[in-house]
Design brief:
The protein is mainly beta. It is built from one helix and five strands. It is globular, with a radius of gyration of 11 Å. It comes from Sphingopyxis granuli.
Length: about 70
């Protein structure tokens, strides 16, 4: 599981980005993944472990979020 730090998350817009610690770039995260993890929002600089999943639209996003 990759580990990253929340770079940005906008609760009103329902999305944000996690910066991967291995330097492979940023991962998109949607509010539905946050809610499925039992969280209401993500805070800047929060460390998370997550999995990457390709959605129906062909885009990759972070899912199965857990506190790291």
């Amino acid at each position: 599981m990759p580990i990253g730090t929340v770079k940005f998350f906008n609760t009103d817009k329902g999305y944000g980005f996690i910066s991967n610690e291995d330097g492979s770039g940023d991962s998109f995260v949607h509010i539905t993944a946050v809610e499925r993890a039992g969280m209401a929002t993500l805070n800047k600089e929060q460390r998370l472990s997550y999995e990457l999943e390709t959605g129906r639209n062909g885009k990759v996003s972070a899912v199965n979020l857990q506190q790291a």
